[in-house]
Amino acid sequence: MNMKWLGRLLVLWAVVCASGYAQIEPVGDGKTPGPLKAQHLTVELVTQHPYVYPGGEFNAGLVFTLEEGWHVYWLNAGDSGEPPHAKWTMPAGITATDLKFPVPQRLPLGPLMDFGYEEGVTFPFTLKATEKAKPGKAHVEAKVDWLVCAQVCLPGKAVLGMDLDVLPVKPADEKTEEPVGAIGSALKSLPTPLPDGARVVVNATPTEFLVTLHSPDKGEVWEFYPFDQEQIKNAAAQRVESFPGGVRIHLAKAEELTKNPAELHGLIKLDDGWGYEFRAPVSTAAAAAIPGAGSTANSGPTAEIWGFLGLAFLGGIVLNLMPCVFPVLFLKALALVQSAGEERKRQRSHGIAYTAGIVVSFWAIVALLLLLRAGGSQLGWGFQLQSPGFVAVLAAFLFLFGLSLAGMFDIGLSLMSVGGGLAAKQGYTGSFFTGVLATVVATPCTAPLMGAAIGFALAQPAWVTFAIFTAVALGLALPYMLLSLQPAWTRILPRPGAWMETLKEFTSLFLFGTVVWLVWVFGRLFGEDGVDRAVRLLAGLLLIAIAGWAMRRWQGKWLGVAIAVLLIIGGVAIPLTGQKAAAEEKARWAAWSEASVQQAHAQGKAVFVDYTAAWCLSCQVNERVALNSDEVQARFKKGNVVLMKADWTKYDPAITEALHAVGRSGVPTYVIYPAGGTAKPDVLPELLSKSIVIDALDRDLKDGDLKDKDLK
Questions:
Q1: For the chain, percent helix, then strand, then coil, each to nearest 5?
Q2: Alpha-carbon distance 113 to 99, whole Å?
Q3: Peptide bond before 35: cis, by omega within 30 degrees of 0?
């Protein structure tokens, strides 16, 4: 099971274990500043001074004190949620600014990530008095609403009020002091502008935003929070690299983001909850290399690059054991033994020429890949693994290579016959082109052995890509280079045998596993049509399997090559072109109303009502896991069930009454109203699965039919 879905199921299980339902009736009568007790929190107004005067202003705050395990939200709530709001009723001459939001914290919940505050938080604001403020008593009132969440989310409301003395002039004994207490702490925790001399540079790659902070005082803890939604993957790890005078944060782009924003509005969190707010234009130019970058607690890139270089080098060495490469190495080693009378210097020169052939070949491959990558972007391939065309082509070629490694046909033999003439030449030219030949015939074996290193290389700047492929080349060339230095070591080489074929077939399993993953990725790119598109890709892979059979059936003949090429083209085209296969349309959700339910019952239809809200995280997960699945939608259609959504994102008294009628006062709530309207509504549990919904439909639709027949 995919870990993301597993995380969602764990979230839903926690929903079942949670208690409490939505608090929607406001607490307080607007006469006192609080504290007022609501579900899982208390809320109150606090002020710096109990008075105002014309032309003056002072700080105040909205304070939430939360029960353990509960949280409220930041300005951008993350993957779910809603920040607190305050609507003011003021006398003439007195105004209040918007609530200000302190630096938040990351709040993971299963596979998702929210941004907010636990334990307690104060949202500061400023009260101002103009010359129109009349001396005397002034009453200010705030209607506050919020969403408090743990495993379930509960909306809440309060009406808070307080009386202020409006003085005619500024008091002579008023002291200019920094606010203390909750207000003082909140003001200190607000994000600040970048200090003098600091700047932020934002670069966009196909899959990431690179946020580079240049600041002499950069602190020790770094997290990024976006002010705008659907820009980054909120739950993704934020990789940080530190360098003298700054840090760089790697942020994975949101799947919903199809175009880079003109600017990035964000907050960089540093030590002890303080941070910088910034706006910076987004550049698509390659990010500048950072001087002296080193690893941090979040694993900087230097160690990572060295790790992948080592992996690539070891992978190149292992390539020598492949059955298409090892015979080349073995024959060259025998040639060294036969030329034992030659000068040691000449033998070393043969090793250098062989190594040069491999390195130059790999450099040519890298240059071609970089040109294709650049050209693919200009042609609209888009974000590589976010591009259906890229994923389909990659899956097709990996599947083809996997078939070759598994023994259906042998790409290596065909390629070796092409380059064998040049490799057979004598002298340094022969050694050089033997290296070229080794590179060519090793290409099908590269992916399963070094997929991680090469995948990392292709997502990096050009110099990193060249460095990693050079490491592969040097690893591939190393054994022969060592033998050219010490020809006597050829006696330790194992002889070619059946073990090599077994090793080659085993490596095909890694390729096939990668293809399975790519099919899943391909389907996810099409949303609701994902299953259909994944099946089309599988059909294309079937054609490619037939192409492999044709290459084996007519090995080395133009007929086999022609048939295979046509089938491969068709295999790639099927998932990307053509009309969508005929399929039942998913039932559409209608807006809920009591009249609509009665109308459906008058037509003899059962009704399924999804009581939901945009801020309800568990509601969204239930819809993805169960309600919108093909199996459940098919059962809805079979039973001629009318689907309705009762959207409680904003308070609706009619929905509240309907919830109370079935013994609930919050969301998520799911109710089946059997046909005819006489049977008792069936309230499903908060935790949904496909089987729970289908079993309930089987039970309730059958019971409803029986009751209708009895009535007739």
A1: 45, 25, 30
A2: 23
A3: yes
Confidence of residue 449 (pLDDT cuts 50, 70, 90): very low
Alpha helices in 459-555 (DSSP H): 462-485, 498-524, 530-553
CB of 84 closer than 8 Å to CB of 62: yes
pLDDT at 431 over 80: no
What is the end-to-end Cα distance of the chain in Å, rounded?
Answer: 48
Strand 275-283 and strand 199-204: the pairing is parallel
Q: Identity (one letter) of the amino acid at 643?
A: L
- Compute the C-alpha angle 147/152/158, nearest 5°: 25
Q: What strands, in cross-sheet order, belong to the sheet with 120-129?
A: 36-38, 41-47, 57-66, 120-129, 94-96
CA distances from 352 to 229, 315, 334, 482, 543 (A): 55, 20, 17, 10, 43
Length of the chain (residues): 712
Quick: pLDDT tens for 464-512.
Answer: 778 878 888 888 778 777 777 766 665 555 555 565 567 667 767 766 8
Give pLDDT, residue 704. Answer: 45
Rounded Cα–Cα distance for residues 596 and 428 (Å): 86
Query: Do the beta carbons of residue 12 and residue 625 sit within 8 Å?
Result: yes
Q: pLDDT value at position 100?
A: 94
Token pair belonging to 55:
């032309």
pLDDT > 50? residue 640: yes
User: How many CB atoms lie under 10 A from the CB of residue 171?
Assistant: 11
Residue partners of 180: CB distance under 8 A and separation at least 6 = none
Element (H, E) at 593: none
pLDDT, tens digit, 9 for 90 and up, residues 123-136: 999 988 888 888 88
Q: Cα 555–559–565 angle (5° rounding)?
A: 90
pLDDT score of 345:
65
Instruction: Report the SS3 class of residue 77.
Output: strand
Average pLDDT, the chain: 75
- Record the tokens describing residue 235, joined without a space: 């739950």
Domains and CATH numbers, the chain: 20-189 (2.60.40.1250), 193-298 (2.60.40), 303-573 (no CATH), 590-711 (3.40.30.10)
Asked if 606 and 706 count as a contact pair (C-beta separation under 8 A), the reply is no
pLDDT tens column, 561-595 = 788 888 888 888 888 775 443 344 344 788 898 88
- Give the C-alpha separation, 338 to 334, whole Å: 6
Q: Which of 22-31, 347-356, 385-394 has the highest mean pLDDT?
A: 347-356
Q: Would you put residue 225 in left (φ > 0), alpha (ψ -120 to 50) or beta?
A: beta
- Check if the beta carbon of residue 36 is closer than 8 Å to that of residue 42: yes
Are residues 246 and 287 in contact, defined by beta-carbon separation less than 8 angstroms?
no
Q: Alpha carbon of 188 to those of 65, 72, 151, 178, 477: distances in Å?
A: 18, 19, 30, 10, 60
**What are the residues facing 161 on neighbouring strands?**
141
> Cβ distance 257 to 309 under 8 Å?
no
Block residue for tokens 């919904």: 693
How far from the centroid of its chain's Cα atoms is residue 224's Cα? 15
Mean predicted confidence (pLDDT) in 91-108:
90
Q: What is the DSSP string of 222-288?
A: -EEEESSSSSB-TTS--EEEEETTEEEEEEEBPTT--S--SEEEEEEE-GGG-EEEEEEEEE-SPPP
For residue 244, report the phi and psi dihedrals to the nearest 5 degrees.
Answer: -55, 115
Q: What is the pLDDT of residue 66?
A: 94
* Burial grade of 188 (CB within 10 A; 0-12, 13-18, 19 or more): middle
Token pair belonging to 480:
């022969």
Q: pLDDT digit string (tens) for 279-313?
A: 999 987 766 666 544 444 444 445 667 777 787 78
Alpha-carbon separation of residue 593 from 52, 361, 654, 656 (angstroms): 49, 69, 8, 12
Omega before 496 cis (within 30°)? no
Residue 59: strand, helix, or coil: strand
